[in-house]
UniProtKB/TrEMBL annotation:
Chain ranges passing through the membrane: 301-323
Protein name as catalogued: Ig-like domain-containing protein
Compartments reported by the entry: Membrane
Any one annotated GO CC term: membrane
SUPFAM superfamilies assigned to the protein according to its UniProt record, in alphabetical order: Immunoglobulin
UniProt keyword list: Cell adhesion, Disulfide bond, Glycoprotein, Immunoglobulin domain, Membrane, Repeat, Signal, Transmembrane, Transmembrane helix
Bilayer topology: Single-pass type I membrane protein
Amino acid sequence: VSKCCHKLKSSSSSLGNPASASCPLQMSPSRVVVKFGDALSAKCTSLSNQTEGMGWESPYGGRDNTKGVTFLDFKIDSVPVWELGPMCYVNLHDGDQCTEILPVTIYKMPDSVSLRQNSTTVKEGEKFAIQCDIVNVAPARNLSVLWHKGNKILNSETFIESSPSPVSKSSVLTLTAHRDDDGAEIWCEAKLNLWPGEQGPAMMPFNLILIKHQKIFLAGNETLEMTVGENMTLNCNAKGNPPPLYHWEFPKFTKEWHDKEEVIEPILTLPFELPGVYTCTAYSNQGNVIKYFNIRSRTTFGVMVGVGVAVGVLLLIVGAYFVTPNGTFSFNKGGYQPGTPSRPV
């Protein structure tokens, strides 16, 4: 290319504004982000009235020195390389030359983004790892991976990578299994950050449903007071993963109770017949938990107390009508005279 490049003056107008009156060169756009294989175009403009000619230096899309112009386009129909730095130059009448390199970022979307987990089931309280694999992405230095659980971001990761060509990267998230996370959706998002303050065109979420083995959780023991024949409900409903099974034991092994021993329902409703301890065992491959139901009969003592209270209330009512002012008792309260016999002696 003729008259490139001697007595160079580098323009610092990277944002597309003239750097100085001595080297008024402007790029539009100021930088280019282009997908590998796509077309690329830019325009270089000289704002100097001393412009003799302009040109583009590049192994692809270069243009010879063109005289008598104040702007010159740069075009590539299909970007064939991973690294490109086309340079615009302006030759001035006094023999000086201004140059500027157009920043070009060439990107490629990943071939795939996938999740790997050593086991699809983990035990509550144990640590486990999930790996997010991003295959053939460029440039990896602009790649970030975000880990999500529902609407919450758990972690983010970026990468130090000098190669502009496609590479594969992995991100590993380590968590501790918690029962509240059972069935939670954990996923990774791989994206290319290609413009300052903006995300690039790559947003590729992939989902994973975590299934956790949970220890059995069962509410504490219960004590109930029942009357013979009254229906009672025994609730042994437990939480766990896998769901627990149930075994019942009763205080009297008549045929009816024996049949009840075989039931696997967590909640039983049956008529009360005998006091005693009813035992429920919830069990799974994560262990077992026992819950005791101490069933008491409403005893004779309770009845006696009730009768006593009733008698006391009755006596109070009777006393209000038949006790005299001096504390003696009379069925003829209106005709009674204190100190006088009620009939002749």
